[in-house]
Write a structure and sequence with these properties.
heterotrimer, A alpha+beta (554), B alpha/beta (179), C mainly alpha (395), B: 179 residues, two-stranded antiparallel ribbon, C: 395 residues, mainly alpha, 3-stranded antiparallel β-sheet, two-stranded parallel sheet, 69% helix, globular, membrane (chain B), cytochrome c-type biogenesis (chain B)
Chain lengths: 554, 179, 395
Amino acid sequence: MMEKIICACGHENPAGTKLCEKCGRPLTEQEQKSKVVDMRYDGIAIRSKTRNKSLIDKIWNFFSSVKVGVSLIIINLVAASIGTIFPQEFYVNVSSIADKATYYEETYGSLGKLYYSLGFADIYSSWWFQILVGLLGISIIVASIDRGIPLHKSLKNQRVKRHESFMKRQRIVAEGPITDGDASKTLDLIEDKMKKLKYNVRREGSAILAERGRFARYGPYINHLGLIIFLLGVMLRMLPGFYIDESIWIREGETRAVPGMEGYFLENEKFILELHDNDPTESQVQQGVNVVAKNYQTDVKLYKQSDDAVAGQAENLELVKEYSIRVNHPLQHEGYSFYQMDFRLNEIKTMIFNLTNKETGESLGEVSIDLTNPQDEYVIDDKTKISLLGYYPGFSGFKDGVPQTATPTPNNPAFIFKMTTPETPDGEMSFVAIRQTIEPNGENKYKMQFKSVETRNMSGLTVHKDKTIPILIVGGIIFMLGVAIGSYWNHRRIWVEQLQDGTIRLAAHTNKNWFSIKKDLNALTEHVSLPKYIDQLDEAAGSEQNEKEGDNTL
Amino acid sequence: MDKKKKRSITRGVILIVLVAAIAYTIYNTATKDKTELLKVGDEAPNFELVDLYDNNLKHRLSDYEGKGVFLNFWGTWCEPCKKEMPAMSNQYAIYKEQGVEVLAINISQTDFEVKKFIESLDVHFPVAIDSTKSVMTAYNVDLLPATILINPEGKVEKIITGEMNETQIASYMESIKPE
Amino acid sequence: MSLIQISGYLLYAAFVAYLVATLLFGGAIKSSKPDGAAKRAEKWGSLAITVTIIGLIAQLGYFITRWIYTGHAPVSNMFEFTTAFGMFIIGAFILIYFMYRIAALGLVALPIAILIIAYAAMFPNEVNPLVPSLQSHWLTIHVITAALGQSILAISAVAGLLYLLKDVDPKIKGKGRFCLEGVLYFLVLVVGFVLITVVFRSMGYEAVFNYVNKEGLEQKITYNMPAVFGMNEYTLLTDDVMEPLVEMPPVINAKKLTTVFWSFIVGTVLYLLIRLITRKRIIEMLHPLVQKVNLSLLDEVGYRSVLIGFPVFSLGALVFAMIWAQEAWGRFWGWDPKEVWALITWLFYAAFLHLRLSKGWEGRKSAWLALIGFAIILFNLIVVNLVIAGLHSYA
């Protein structure tokens, strides 16, 4: 059997109750001895404190404890702060894992090496950090269930009349005859006045309970609910389909399939970088912040395939949207967002050469090679033409006499030309790279003289879809609502009882902001000519309270 | 007593659910990098690409139903891609008769580069260019070379990243050849 | 006179007003004589708060004129943000003053705000154009709300300090006395920083160096104080100035270290002078001034300001920050150091509230917690901005 505490008034209270649920008599020895009772949770039995038997109950009790909760907050706080000692690895600009390890060691010495090897460089996605946050989540849920439900019951079933021992042990008390007027009207006057002060007033015989802002007590539970919904949203992100985070590089003029967004294509029309016309300050240069930038912008067109199309079919695209993506102004479409993240300027797009006679320096004509679409032959006139035999965008050297390319991007373009002119009808071969020309069949008469380039920019965008955002928003709103309710409102209660001889016994309690309830009481005392109340805590602290600063200027 | 038992069960259920949620989150984070959009056994995404040499010839995966399809993603700058091509060409000559199709998909390079490259290697199998990287995206190809084996039922049989030698190529083609 | 000059003068005016108001608040609490002392104190008090309000209006004038001039809310660099933070502390103090009418609060709140504004003035106050990511209305909304929340939270530290000044007996040796004196010593160090910066600035001291940075690139740096610590592989370019004594590795910014060093030296000398001249600890001097304050009322003020500030801080530093981050970068949370420290601040005050509600940590413990909370806020303002570089690094 569960142990019950039977109060002198006859009410059965669950074990662990501090103040009788019905009349308010202090039930524990500690409460009976104290001058001012502990009104937290209104003296209810916190569920888990009452029983402690099975393993489940023990675990439950562990998480229900505020001490554990606060410890978890502090542990999370410390863990989070460790992650800021050195930059996290996702802010470090190196690619491979081996590079990262050496980066930390080279930049921060042996401490950096230790930091990296302990996994602190990616602390926030480590399993143990997630466990810490998870434990805190469990603590929030369990503690709220454990306290919220009984508190709600107790607040709902409040009695108007409380026992003397309860009243006398409140922080603010008053007892005595009224100082002026008709004692038989006192209760009516109190009721009127308290109603005017926007209290809810209940009266039972010679007792009054005036109460205001009870909902403030639910603030903490509401904000905890918001936090839990938020954490749930963050967790849902892990489920497939809820969260997409892809990046995409597009050069000007290119159209690319959008990763993670089936059937959609994005065309980069133009990338724009605008600069402020001031010089960066010294500190900005030091930090490597590109502070002079004014605008990063990509003008794009978003296309959609027809419904029956499959991957690879890039014809008959339907234009969905034209937009200028800027920082802080993402392109949004059907839950997807495109963000401006990065850029690379001036990639070679077209190279222009002059077919030049080496001796005379005379030009036979110009050849413009579009690197996005090189041709086999460039005809200048009927006897003069250039054949393109090879194109190597990222020329990296020869292997077995064959030019190699290291990348598909034109970082270091190289060509093999065959130049046919009236003077050299059989054609001359020439290998042309930047600052390098090789003429395999002996000295040529003509050369492809580099004239100029046209460039284009490349824009780095990220594609995001996050279905959890609405959940996070709901969680955030509930949280803010709960915090505001819990912080800006308070639960004030005033109990009054008129004894048989007409004297008044009064007690008052608020969960916070004693200053304001005292203001209400001052107004009440004056209006009804009640005996002067005392703050038992102030009395305990020192006597001449009225002379103290602050109190005389209410 | 009954009430007490009920409460214990409720508490137990709540705790288990919460712990399971945390465990699932951690598991997901730990395996996040390894999850692939495309897995063995999945339906291979349909696609259509234009042949490198014949603008009227379209390679559409659904047209190859009943055949095994050997999809090879490559680029001219990729050294291992280049190395495995002759072997692919040899084996294709053998398995073509047995109902295996090869398609070498170049990642968004120019016609000129691709043609010159294929000609220089003297290999013979259908080639197409994925100029919008659309097929590459659909197949979640990240590193080259990547080869995807599709069986006659249109399901992904195997995903191979990295270079293959001729024996491997032969056995891969063997594995997707129709009965 | 241009708008930016007007703005500058208004800030000076505010600064002077705060100084005067501090003295007036001093008059408002010195009421030891029984006859009519309370009345006199009240008079001083209302005068003091009037001057404070005039100062706040002047500073608001600074804020608004600078806003008009630059075209964006002046909270985009270290000078602007810190100045605004000082202003909001004054605002929060005025709010609390009208709720509780405790003149002694002004005696602590105003000097702290003055120190913060003076500290801000040590940073370059040039007007910088905004980088693209800052060009958003959320800059205004997020930063102002966050700073407002922090300032209200700061008032709890003000109340806490006042509480401890009365509560801690300067005659009894102990941890409390040592730590509280330490807090005051820190305030003297800030004065030292301001002093030494002003002195060398008025002398026009300059020493230019070349050095090699973390990425191995050669860069130039100008010291405005005699270089005690040299940057990595430095070469001195200015004639007739002090050569650095020690060279630092590339991860350490030797210029900032030098500033810290000088502030420390000057502050310590200053502190020792105070001790030598008065033959007293600073708390011993302040202790008698605060005898009249009501401890339980101060405790309530401290708690109340956390209650008022916490939701504002949550909204500004977390909720609005997330909304903006989502809009600018597509991820509402990026574990940037500044973000993490905002979270830490938030967690700390959450712990504060739980301890107070459920564990009954009131009075002295609560006052110490409030001071620690303010220390975290200052850490986030100073160390995170200047030492740990991230998306938010100003200056």
